[in-house]
Amino acid sequence: MTDIKYMILISRQGKVRLVRWYHTFTAKEESKMLKELAAIVLSRKARMCNILEYHDHKVVYKRYASLYFVCGINADSDNELLTLEIIHRFVEIMDTYFNNVCELDIIFNFAKAYDILNEMLMCDGSLVETSKQEIIKHITHMDAVETNDNLNRVFA
Amino acid sequence: MTSAFAPSTEEVMQRLRPFGLFFEKSLKDLIKGIRAHSETPEQLGQFLSQALSECREEVNSAEFNLKTNAVLKLTYLEMYGYDMSWANFHILEVMSSNKIQQKRVGYLAASQSFYKDSDILMLATNLLKKDLKYDGLNDKVKMGIALSGLSTMVTSSLARDLCDDLISMLSSNRPYIRKKAIAALFKVFLDFPEALRDNFESFVARLEDEDSSVVSATISVICELSKKNPVPFIPLSPLFYEMLINIDNNWIIIRLLKLFTNLSQVESKLKPKLLPKILELMDLTSATSVIYESINCIVKGGMLGDTDLDTAMNCLEQITKFCNSNDPNLRYVSVVLFYKIGKINTEFISEYDDLVILLLKDVDISIRSRALELLEGAANEDNLPKTVKILLKQFIEKNTVPLSRSEKSSGTMDQFKTIEVDMPAFYKVKMAFTILKICSMNSYANLVDFEWYITVLRDLCFVSMELKDENLGRKLGEEWRNILVKVPEMRGKAMGAVLELVSSNDISTYLPSVLKECIWCIGEYSNLVDNGDDLITLLMRVKFTAADIGQILIHALLKIFSNWCNNRGSAEPIEVKRLVEQLITFLETYSLSKFVEVQERSYEYLEFLKLCDESIDVNIQELPLLITDVLPSLFNSYELNPISLGTQKRLQSNVTIDLETPFLSESDLQNLLNRSEYKLEAGENIPENLSDDSDSSIFSQHDDLHSPDLLKEEEYTRVDTKRQSDEIQRKIDRQTNPFYLDDGDDARVIRQKSNSLVDLEPEESPGVSNAIRLSKDERIPVENPQKKNKKKKRLQVLADETVPDTHPSTESDEHHDNNSATSGNTFSNKINLRNRSKLEGFDFASNKSLTPLSPDSTGEAQADLDKLRAKFANQSLEDSAQDEEVIVIKRKKPRKSKKSKKKPKDKENSANDKQDTHQNAGEV
C-alpha cells in the first residue's frame, strides 16, 4: 500500500538515531542519502509542506520535538498523507510504550524502537499492523518473556 | 577471604549481566561515550574506532552475553556508518541462542546486516527452519521474531525451503502467527511465484479471517502483489468490493482503494461498479488521506476518461478544498492531483487558473515548483500577462509570505510576521523556462501583445544572468530567434532589444550562451540597422570566447557589412574601404583561432574581403560589383522562413538525390574543354594554371556578352582562387538568367517590405545602445495613435513550413514536442507532460517482467508458468536475487546494471521533449 523505501530518524543536530532500509542501496548511496537528507530536511522552514522531491523518489518527513522522522516513498504510487499518518502512528506507539517518548529513550533503547517498527511495517516497507493496542501488546509480551527468561537464568 | 559458599566474582558478574549490568562497556556506556566525545570529529572518530576494536574482541568471546552485547553495540555503530557484515557469523551464533533476549538482538542485527551478504543465509536456513517450529515454550514470541527477521532476508532459495513451513502456519490457531506468516509469505511469493499458485486458495482464505489484523495484513500483501501482477486477483474483485462497502477502518479502505487502482488498470469492467461507490466514499469521509486516495484511484485506475466532465468536476471540487487549506501538505497534494487530472485533459483544469496562480505564491517552493508545471495547462490569453508578471516579480523581489493565513498561529505577533522565502536557483531556472514555454506554446497562441513579450524576454535575459544556466541562455537565444523569424512585424522591436543584449557587457560575461542566436539574428536582420559600420565596430569590440559564437559572428559581420554597403546606396567607397580593412584585421586574429570551424570561415571571408579591398582601390569612385552584387547574393537569395522540426530529416529520407548521373556527359565535357582551349588561346589574360577548366570556360563563355565592369572584374581572375571564379561565375549566371535578374530586385523589395512593416520611432527602442540606429522607413507614416488598437489585434505569426508528411508515425513525436517550432495544434488540448507518464509505464512494466507471478491455475497462465519455471531452472545461485523489490541478498552489481539499463529507455521517451527534460533536470 505504501512502499516505504527507508525510515530514518534524524536529530536536530543531524545525527542519525534510527535507520531502516527497506530497499537495497549501496553503502555509498546510503551514506550519501543520509547526509543529503539531513541537510535538506533540517533546512526546511516551519510552514513548508512535509513532502520533498528527492532524486527519483519523494521524501515525507515530520518533526516531533527534536527528532525528524524521514521516509522515502515511491514518487508515483504512494500516498503522502498516509505516510505522514504512518509516521504519526509510529510516534504514538513509541509514546505509549516509553511513556512520553523523548529522543534519549530512542537512543538508549534503539533495539526496542526497531522492534516496534518491525511490528508495524512489513519487510518491504508496507504497513502490516495498524492497531496500536496490538503492537503494544506484542512488544510488552516479548519484554515479559524476555524478563522471565532472564530471571530463570539468574535463579537457575 | 573467599568463603566456599560465597559466589566467585566471575559468577556474580555472570548473574548480573542479564539485568544489563555489564562490566565490559555496555551499550549505555558506548552511547554516553559517543556523546562525551562528540566535540570534534577526530575525537569521535578515535573513540568509535576504539569501541569498534573492543567489539571485535568481545564478539569472539565464548561468553554469550558478552557476544550479544557486542553485536548490539555493532548494530548501533552501524547507524554511524560502520559496516558490520564482517560479524555476520557471530550474529548467526547470537540468533541461534535460545534466550529470547539474545535471539531478538541477533535477529535485529541480522535484519540490518544480512541482506548485504548472501553466503551467511545458506547457514541461516536451518536455524530459521528450527525457529519456525512450534516447540511449546515461548513459541509465539520466538516464531514472531523469526518471521519478522525472515521477511527481511528472503532469497529465492530460502523462499523455496521455507515456503511449506510458512503455508502451514496460515492455519495456526494464533492470529499473531498467521499475521506474521502472511507478511513473510509476501517476500516468498515474490521470489518463488509457484508458491502463490499452489496455495492461492488457502492464502486468500485469510481475507475472511476472524482476526482483523490478519485480514489487514492479507490485504496489504495482495495489494503489493497486485502492483506486480494484478491478473490473478481480478476474480476476487466482488469480495474486495464487499469489503470496501462494509469496512470502516480507513487504513484498510485506503489499501483496498490502492488495490482497486491496480486491478482496474487491467480490468476496465470494474469502472462502472466502482466509480459511484468511490465518489460516494469521497463525499462521506472526512479523512483527507482517504479522499486523496479516492481521487488517486479514479485518476490512476483509468476511471477518468478525457470526456468525463462530471467526475472530473467532482474530484476537482475536493482538490479545491485541499488547495485552500492551511495545511501545506494538502496544498502540495492538490497540486499533484491537479497535474494528474490536467494530464488527462487540460480542459478540466483550465477553469482553475486563479487557483494555480494562487499556488504560485505559496510559501513553499516545492508547491510553487509543481504549480509551474500546471501553468502549461492553465495559462490562457487572458491570464498570461498576469501570470508572467507574478513570476517575473519573484525573480527580483524579496519574497515574503504573510503568516496570517494560518489561524492557529500561536502568538499574536505571528499575524503580522512574514516569512521570507528564499528562491533556489533551480526554481528560478524553472520559472524562466516556464515563462518561455507558456508564452510560446502552440506558436504563440496565448500571446497577444508581442511588444510586451519582447520586454519580458529582455528582462528575463537580465535576471537570468545570475543563474548562470547555460541551457536557459541557449533557450532564451532561441526564443529571440523565433520571434525575429516568425513575427515579421516585430522584427524592428526585437532587434532593438537584441542589440542591447549584445552590447551589454554583463550579458557577455554572465550569460554568453544567449549570444549565439542573438548574433545570428543581428546578422540576418541587419537590414534593419542604419549604421552597420558602427554595429560592426561594436561587434568586433566584444570579446567572445566560445567557438560557436565565433562561427556565427563571422557570418554575421559579413551580413551586416553587405547590408550596410548596399542598403542605403550611399556608402562612400572610402568608408567602405576603411571598414573592409578593419574587418580584415579582425578576421586575421580569428584565422588563428584554435577552433577549426572559426579558422576556416575566417579564412574564407578574409580572402574575399582582400579582393574587395583591392577592387575598391582600382576604382575609388564607386563600389565594386563584388560588394554590390556578389556579396548580397551570398545571403539574400531567399527569404528565410520557419520550418517545423523534423522537416529536414524527412526531406533527407524522402528526396532521392541522383548522385550517379554526371552533369556533363563525356562528349559534352570534351566539347567544353575544346571551347575553353580555344578561348584560352584567343583570350588575353587568363592564366594557364587555372585550376578548374570548366569553370573558367563558362566564365569566358559569358564574357563577351557582358558589361564593361565585368571586364574589370575579369582582371581579378588572374590572381584568382578557384572559389572566387566560382562566385563570379555564379553572379554571371544570375545576370544572364532572367529569373535571377528579377530575383535581385526581389530581394530588395522584400527588404523594403519588411522595413515598412516596422513602424517604430527611435525612442521606442530605448535600450539600444545609442550608437546603433534602427532604420525606419519614411514613406510609411508612424501610426502611433493606432497602437492601442494594435494591442488587441493579433500579429501574424508565420506558420512553420512543412513538407507533406510521408512518414506520419515516425517523426510526429519530436514534431509536436518542441514548442518553438510547432505549428500543429493536434496536441494542444493535452499538457505536454510526456516524461511524467513514462515513470508510470516504466514501473509497472519492469516489475512485471522482473517478477512475474503465476496466476492461479488457468490454462493461459500455464504458459507463463512454464516460462517462469524455465527461468528459475536456469538461475544459478548467484543471480537469483535480481528483483528490485526484494531486499537483495546477493551481489549488488546485477541489480545496478539493471537500473542503468532502464534509465536510457526512459531517456528515449523523453529525449524528444527538451523543455520537459530541462524541467526535470531542475527537479532532480
Automatic annotation (TrEMBL), chain A:
Keywords: Cytoplasmic vesicle, Golgi apparatus, Membrane, Protein transport, Transport. It is found in: Cytoplasmic vesicle, Clathrin-coated vesicle membrane; Golgi apparatus. One of its GO terms (biological process) is intracellular protein transport. Its main location: membrane. GO terms for cellular component: AP-1 adaptor complex; cytosol. InterPro entries: AP1_sigma (IPR044733), AP_complex_ssu (IPR016635), AP_mu_sigma_su (IPR022775), Clathrin_sm-chain_CS (IPR000804), Longin-like_dom_sf (IPR011012). Belongs to the adaptor complexes small subunit family. Residues 4-144 form the AP complex mu/sigma subunit domain. GO terms for molecular function: clathrin adaptor activity. This is AP complex subunit sigma.
From TrEMBL, chain B:
One of its GO terms (cellular component) is endosome membrane. The keyword Transport applies. Residues 50-610 form the Clathrin/coatomer adaptor adaptin-like N-terminal domain. The keyword Transport applies. It is found in: Cytoplasmic vesicle, Clathrin-coated vesicle membrane; Golgi apparatus. It holds the Pfam family Adaptin_N. Adaptor protein complex 3 (AP-3) is a heterotetramer. Part of the AP-3 complex, an adaptor-related complex which is not clathrin-associated. The complex is associated with the Golgi region as well as more peripheral structures. It facilitates the budding of vesicles from the Golgi membrane. PANTHER family: AP-3 COMPLEX SUBUNIT DELTA-1, DELTA ADAPTIN-RELATED. This is AP-3 complex subunit delta. The lineage of its organism: Eukaryota, Fungi, Dikarya, Ascomycota, Saccharomycotina.
